[in-house]
Automatic annotation (TrEMBL), chains A, B:
Membrane topology recorded in Swiss-Prot or TrEMBL: Multi-pass membrane protein
Location of the protein in the cell: Membrane
Highest taxon, organism lineage: Archaea
NCBIfam families for this protein: SemiSWEET_2 (NF037968)
UniProt GO MF annotations: sugar transmembrane transporter activity
Record keywords, A-Z: Membrane, Transmembrane, Transmembrane helix
Naturally occurring in which organism (per UniProt): Methanocaldococcus lauensis
Full protein name: MtN3 and saliva related transmembrane protein
Keyword set includes Amino-acid biosynthesis: no
Length: 99, 99
């Protein structure tokens, strides 16, 4: 899908790829830190499950609309958020056993 | 745009609206807390500027693709992230003056 911006014919998807790069990689340092330190204390279980479910539905939405930027960046995000969700659930269950 | 899922004809946008609701409202408690307490200490300036720029480009992308779920939820997110960006920049400038 092409559009003319300031006399330049550009593919709209480029805007989607730049947007996705910014929003996905903005949170990367924090995500990598949490994964490395396995420190899930500052992330709530409700947030993690809600957010990861939302990302999965955005992925379904992107596939159904054949919208590549949405597909690419939700897959990338899920590659981080699924392990974080797993660690958070494991962490929560461990704490419940101890209490 | 319609699709048949488990013999039901549904509008794909519904999936986008559910996805957007989950990802946007998942982070709401944290955003409201930061705005109320005006405590920007746990948010980095780089993250805020990168993320908010990304949201703005997703909004442009949604408008160009005439994709309502993307438009709606990026506007909603920006309604939180723009004030947070403003507060974070103000906070950072104040600290630089003091040092």
């Amino acid at each position: 899908m092409m559009v003319i911006i300031m006399d330049n014919l550009i593919d709209i998807s480029i805007i989607g790829y730049i947007a996705g790069t910014l929003t996905t990689f903005a949170s990367l340092p924090q995500l990598i830190k949490s994964l490395k330190e396995k420190d899930m204390s500052n992330i709530s279980l409700t947030f993690v499950i809600t957010f990861t479910t939302g990302l999965s539905l955005w992925l379904v939405y992107g596939i159904l609309r054949n919208d590549y930027p949405i597909i690419v960046f939700n897959i990338l995000s899920l590659m981080f958020w699924i392990p974080i969700t797993y660690l958070k659930i494991k962490d929560t269950l461990k704490k419940r056993k101890l209490s």
